[in-house]
Design brief:
By secondary structure, the chain is mainly alpha-helical. The chain has one domain: Amino acid/polyamine transporter I. Helix content is about 65%, strand content about 0%. A two-stranded antiparallel sheet has the order 1-2. β1 and β2 (about 400) form a beta hairpin. The mean pLDDT is about 95.
Length: about 525
């Protein structure tokens, strides 16, 4: 089919859903895939969470990767069907709006958008340690990655640079993401090859061992799983991968900028998740086989740099640069996705200042004010890094732990908020099917639609409970992930704020005007 015919079909579908083409539709399948893959980012995820996964579950935690990817594939299939039916900016917000109703969709958009912007601050602040290491090595600086001002300045600079890249055109965003894919490929498969050439220290039998992390006396973090791996350590270790394997849905956030979106976006979602799973498995496999004979203790305490320290200095610097680029590419993709959610909500009049936020740059055809919103809000979140108590604070029935700055507490919401938005979206698809909805997009699941959706919803519900379930701050889940009650409370507060605004301003009434599909 000719490009003009495809573009005309894209415009026709957009018009049928009550909108006109305002953004620049310039992204190819590979661009769309690249944005989704850069957001998922195996390098960012594994380099950030490997030590936690290893310390919580031992080497055996690698086998939770195919489990998480397998179940999340069910979710990707549901999202692909929805993306093909509703190829609109804002993805999950749109799916909830059309499948269930305006109010339901608004809540999904509120939770998902908030989680995305919290993720921007999370990802970009995660690059600080690598940037300071590189600066201290190359330029003989003495930057402290734990210093609040250092974190604020470096993270803020990354946020602004990402905003510039996102503002000057979707094609530039796509090129940044493409570069990110190449970097991720080298940073995963390249590291594996380099470690293999240098020489692995462990055999394959090591991959099936726990190294006794389920026991309090031998757990590197000193957390207590009661001697149980399957019902204790594994349930916490799996979160190291649960926190990684999402972001593929961002392919749907940029649907209105993707050529032949009804076909390409579902494919990009599946490919991003599958390739992300393979790359992550290979990287973790390399790290595990490279574990020193002395055991996992040093790796857990020192992180990935302990393993890379065995490589030549120049090669360590190369991989350090690649990691920094991966963090930047990931942060740029997340910010771009969050901006499209803000644009979609404001286009329907569903946010304060919608008339301003929804404006499109005449020159670049990007939602420039939505991108500005996606810059300012993460900056505000970043201020939370200054709140860092030196001792435990007992508040009502829970404890806020010492040395956990408030940004980390917000970041812990990012994953729980995204899983809540995912769960509500898949649940919305189930509700729509029960009401008689039959998908008519270019990608459909046919008779498998309901079983796949039920399986995806079951997985998301269980993992959401696993993420937010309040645990003692001396337990694995509480100490390493949700800080006891903190993650659940932050999620409840954000949902409550949204409910208060929704109840007073009733943005769903404005959203409802765009819900009726024109045939």
């Amino acid at each position: 089919m000719a490009v003009d015919d495809v573009t005309a079909r894209d415009d026709e579908r957009l018009s049928a859903l009550g909108y006109r083409q305002e953004l620049s539709r310039v992204l190819s399948l590979f661009d769309n895939f690249s944005v989704a893959f850069s957001y998922l980012s195996p390098v960012v995820g594994i380099y950030s969470l490997y030590a936690i996964g290893l310390g919580a579950g031992g080497p055996r935690y690698i086998w939770t990767i195919p489990i998480v990817v397998g179940f999340m594939t069910l979710v990707a299939l549901v999202f692909g069907e929805l993306a093909s039916e509703y190829p609109l900016s804002g993805a999950l917000y749109q799916y909830g709006k059309y499948n269930v109703g305006a109010r339901y969709g608004w809540f999904v958009g509120w939770i998902y958008g908030f989680a995305l912007l919290a993720t921007v601050a999370s990802v970009d602040s995660g690059a600080v340690g690598y940037i300071t290491d590189l600066s201290n090595t190359w330029f003989k600086t003495n930057l402290n990655p734990a210093d609040h001002l250092t974190i604020f300045v470096i993270t803020g600079a990354i946020i602004v640079l990402s905003a510039i890249m996102n503002s000057v055109g979707a094609k530039i965003m796509g090129r940044v993401a493409r570069f990110g894919v190449y970097v991720e490929t080298i940073g995963t498969f390249g590291v594996f090859i380099a470690l293999a050439i240098h020489g692995f220290h462990q055999g394959f039998g090591f991959l099936f061992s726990t190294q006794h992390v389920e026991n309090l006396k031998t757990n590197p973090f000193g957390v207590n799983f009661g001697g149980h791996w399957w019902t204790g350590a594994a349930l916490v270790a799996v979160l190291a991968n649960v926190y990684i394997f999402f972001g593929f849905e961002s392919a749907g956030d940029i649907s209105e900028e993707t050529v032949n979106a009804q076909r390409q976006v579902p494919r990009a979602m599946r490919n991003a998740l599958l390739y992300g799973g393979i790359a992550s498995f290979v990287l973790v496999l390399g790290f595990l086989l490279a574990t020193p004979k002395s055991g996992i203790g040093g790796v857990v305490s020192g992180g990935v740099p302990v393993l890379l320290a065995a490589l030549p200095g120049w090669l360590q610097d190369v991989f350090l640069v690649l990691v920094i680029i991966a963090f930047f590419s990931c942060g740029t993709a997340v910010q771009g996705a969050g901006a499209r959610v803000a644009f979609a909500l404001s286009r329907d009049g569903a946010l304060p200042g919608s008339a301003t936020v929804r404006k499109i740059s005449p020159r670049h055809k990007t939602p420039v004010n939505a991108i500005l919103t996606g810059t300012i809000i993460p900056f505000l979140f970043l201020l939370l890094v200054l709140v860092n108590p030196s001792r435990n604070y007992h508040i009502l029935w829970f404890t806020y732990p010492a040395h956990i700055n408030a940004l980390y507490a917000l970041v812990s919401f990012a994953t729980s908020g995204i899983y809540l938005a995912f769960f509500l979206t898949v649940l919305g698809a189930i509700i729509a099917r029960r009401r008689g909805w039959r998908p008519s997009g270019k990608f459909t699941l046919g008779k498998w639609g309901m079983p796949v959706a039920i399986g995806g919803a079951g997985y998301l519900g269980l993992m959401l409970l696993n993420i937010v379930w309040p645990s003692s701050i001396t337990s694995g889940r509480g100490a390493l992930f949700n800080y006891g009650w903190i993650t659940l409370l932050v999620m409840v507060i954000i949902v409550a704020i949204g409910a208060l605004y929704e109840g007073l301003a009733r943005p769903d009434r404005r959203v409802a005007r765009h819900r009726i599909e024109k045939e």
